[in-house]
């Protein structure tokens, strides 16, 4: 049973702080109530005063991620620039906490109240571009998938393995491409290096966002 002292020094904020720190180092699979309690130096029962189960804890973690996104944009800037700024802010947050990135897609908005702030900011930008609310909603969903996929697939993200294991994984991946039939896969073999390791992740992120924004601009121009 949780002691009065444990309850006094814990809050929802400190529990989420601990959950985020644990996820950053051990991934979502490593985030359990028991492991989090150990990380915080309390009994598991102490956590249930703030979150009744792991699902509710994950909702709180997702809400924390959304709260970190800076929605500040220059209102006088062209809408494509504002959209790019907002997406960059999201990518920055997810890159800082990549193992929790999937929560921003899987968690329902009503369970993460700060999500509404981001959605409102994005929909205002898209409305300025001439899109209807229904179109804006579709673009928001695709934009969210874009930024999360960019981060989850970040080639610079260290997996939960040693550097030697990661290097060996990349070596084998590249070798599997380079040993393909050159007559059947000449283009793939030529791109074996860039496919398995990207030397400039910053350029990769910028290109991904530019690609999405350019597509939205093209749609707006056709209206």
TrEMBL record:
Query: Which InterPro entries does the record cross-reference, listed alphabetically?
Result: Homeodomain-like_sf, HTH-type_TetR-like_transc_reg, HTH_TetR, Repressor_TetR_C, Tet_transcr_reg_TetR, Tet_transcr_reg_TetR-rel_C_sf
Name the source's superkingdom.
Answer: Bacteria
Q: Which residues bind DNA?
A: 32-51
Q: Name one GO molecular function term.
A: DNA-binding transcription factor activity
Residue ranges of every copy of the HTH tetR-type domain listed in the record: 9-69
Return the SUPFAM superfamilies for the record: Homeodomain-like (SSF46689), Tetracyclin repressor-like, C-terminal domain (SSF48498)
Q: Give one Pfam family.
A: TetR_C_1
Q: Which Gene3D superfamilies match?
A: Tetracycline Repressor, domain 2
GO biological process terms, semicolon-separated? negative regulation of DNA-templated transcription; response to antibiotic
UniProt keyword terms in alphabetical order = DNA-binding, Repressor, Transcription, Transcription regulation
Its name, as the record gives it, is TetR family transcriptional regulator
């Amino acid at each position: 049973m949780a002691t009065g002292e444990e309850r006094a020094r814990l809050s929802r904020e400190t529990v989420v702080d601990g959950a985020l720190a644990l996820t950053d180092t051990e991934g979502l699979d490593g985030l359990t109530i028991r492991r989090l309690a150990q990380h915080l130096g309390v009994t598991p029962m102490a956590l249930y005063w703030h979150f009744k189960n792991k699902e509710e804890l994950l909702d709180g973690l997702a809400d924390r991620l959304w709260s970190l996104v800076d929605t500040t944009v220059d209102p006088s800037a062209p809408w494509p620039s504002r959209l790019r700024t907002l997406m960059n802010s999201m990518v920055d947050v997810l890159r800082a906490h990549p193992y929790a990135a999937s929560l921003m897609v899987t968690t329902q908005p009503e369970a993460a109240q700060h999500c509404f702030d981001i959605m409102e900011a994005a929909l205002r930008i898209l409305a300025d571009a001439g899109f209807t609310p229904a179109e804006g909603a579709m673009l928001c969903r695709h934009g969210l998938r874009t930024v999360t996929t960019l981060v989850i697939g970040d080639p610079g993200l260290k997996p939960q393995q040693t550097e030697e294991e990661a290097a060996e994984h990349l070596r084998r991946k590249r070798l599997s491409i380079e040993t393909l039939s050159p007559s059947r896969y000449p283009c793939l073999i030529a791109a074996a290096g860039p496919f398995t390791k990207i030397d400039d992740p910053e350029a990769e992120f910028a290109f991904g966002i530019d690609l999405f924004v350019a597509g939205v601009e093209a749609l707006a121009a056709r209206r």
